[in-house]
Amino acid sequence: MAGKDDIAGLTKEEVSIKLPDTWPTEEDLKDDTVKYRTLQDDTFLRFYLSNDPFVYPMRHSIRGNVLVINNETFMKLPHRTGTEHDCNKIRAVFSQLGFSVIIYNNLTCSEMKKTLDRESKNDYSNHDCFIMFIMSHGDQGVVLGTDGKTENGIEDLSIKVKEIKRSFLENKSLVGKPKLFFFQACQGSQLDKGQSPNDESCTESNFKTGETLIQSEQSETTRNDAINSSSEMTDSEETPNGSTIPTDSDTYLSTATVEGYVSWRNLFWGTWYIQAIVYIFRNFACKHDLNELMTAVTNLVSKMETAKGQFKQVPQNNTTLRKKFYLFPLIHEPCAEQYDNEKRRREKLEIEIKKRDEMIASQKKQIDKEKEQRQSLENELKIRDECIVNVYHCPSIRLLSHGDQQYRSKSFFL
């Protein structure tokens, strides 16, 4: 089953994700062109069309919606300068991946709740999946609206992550479809100093954040503020006969950092987490499933450290996906149907070409035979020419020419 392993027919180089030795260059971060496999890549097309039961179907030309809530300007907290770069990258990359990107900027807590309630009740019957990005200040298990947090007066104005996820799990048109939730927000206030690995095969990263890309003190990364919340729990409902699926199935929830810790953002190119996602998806979504992509994201983010303090960050991923989730860039059902039609036309042309080749081969044999007969005639002609020459040089019959008067030899009258 192709879905359980790497795509059959791909080389070892094709199924491995090669990350840069350091953080991607400034040029790489600016590039937002998605790589894809062409329709001529028969291996990938056959895999797409195989209806593998261990792979989520992606049949629509518009895969679904990518809902983005991007909070930058806050009333009581520092502004999240640099988040606009994350937002622009998400729009550019996921549009190329076949999604309708819907962006809401600077929502208060009540506005976020209204927006999420409205979006969670939409009809997604004609969509293959649903994806959400929320980028804001936050803490363990919660995200803040732009009016959030007061501290001593309490009033935090936050929304629990599990409540956001639960609202979309209740949408019947999304049952059995992958639902992806990405949260770029702090999960606490602790700073991760990192630790030296005992495994000799591991090496400690020694490159910096913004200073590596932009030589300026202003490129120093900044962290989000936070509040407190309880941990997340989920329930499932399942019957032995498999006629239903668990309530919390088919979800992928990813946070920029682990519980209790801050996440990091660069003023000039955005957050480590979002920039890693768009970089990995842009380059490797054409070959790898979501779990492999997000493992690479985790790897890439964990290589980073701040210029001051050498603080680290590692994302946290929680999945209940029951199948492999491939994005299949630029490949969809109408495209596949067109491919099948073109392939059938090509097969007909191949048959016609084969017939022509057979006719040419047959004609070639006839031509070769005609050539042999012609050569035979030429040989006979040559013999006739030799005979004529021999007759011409016969001493008994020779015509002598001398001026304007001709004479016959004496032997002619003997």
TrEMBL record:
One of its GO terms (molecular function) is cysteine-type endopeptidase activity. Keywords: Apoptosis, Coiled coil, Hydrolase, Protease. Pfam families: Peptidase_C14. It comes from Lymnaea stagnalis. Belongs to the peptidase C14A family. Residues 241-329 form the Caspase family p10 domain. GO terms for biological process: apoptotic process; proteolysis. The keyword Coiled coil applies. Residues 62-190 form the Caspase family p20 domain. Gene3D superfamilies: 3.40.50.1460. Residues 210-250 are annotated as: Disordered. This is Uncharacterized protein. Residues 339-380 form a coiled coil. It comes from the Eukaryota.
